[in-house]
Amino acid sequence: MPLTDLMFRTTRVASLGVQNAIGVVRPHPAVNGDQRTHAFTHARATLAITPNGGTMNLSIVPDVNGDVVYIPWGLGEIHSVHIPQAELANISLFVTAQMQGCQLVVNKMDDGSYKFHHGNSLQSPTAQDSATRPTFQTPAALTDLTRLSDLGRPLVADPVQIQLTGTLSKADYFAGVQRRLDQKFANGRTGINYARPEHVSFTYVVAFNLGAQWSVWYQTSSQFFYRRPTKAIFRKKVVDPSAGQNIEFIEAREAFRI
């Protein structure tokens, strides 16, 4: 069962599991400072979808002949893969690890190839900002993410240069979460630990190969933590879900085409 944009838009991803096929050990990526570059062959995989009630589980298995490209993430690192133009016809999807503040950068090169990058900054906001301001990144984090993405830029003397760049950041994929929290606050909700309602959110990113372009999609889900005002008609005045409970499918949309 292939993953389609319709499925990604309407069915929540419950988990993304990455496994090694029997006898396959994924080689380590090449290291360039904080950049980890995965060889194209090593990044190839197959994708299996398991329906789970109203959700779906995605399972990535490394496969040198697979039609999916997958890269992980690392603390304070940017993980990258280069998909050669000659191999584009053999790849249908790009998938990366779950995002909660990371940044995806896609570079279309002037030779028709593509470079995908998943960057993570250690310059995190405070616990309060993380809980109540989903789209917020510290200035230091924004600077660090720019530094990381610059590691993937070609040298001026390189024969292949960047033609177009698409970027997906926390401010984009958590925008729906921010709107939901603002709405709850406007309706009199307050947080469990702070004055404003709180959240824990996560985003999955999938890029679909359209042939002449890549269509980059994100899907975001959240847990919300808040107290209702005493005049509320609901019996449950405190919403404080345990891990894995009361996860709301916030939005899934196309971020950009490149």
From TrEMBL:
Organism placement in taxonomy: Bacteria, Pseudomonadati, Pseudomonadota, Betaproteobacteria, Burkholderiales
Source organism of the structure: Piscinibacter gummiphilus
Highest taxon of source: Bacteria
Protein name from the UniProt record: Uncharacterized protein
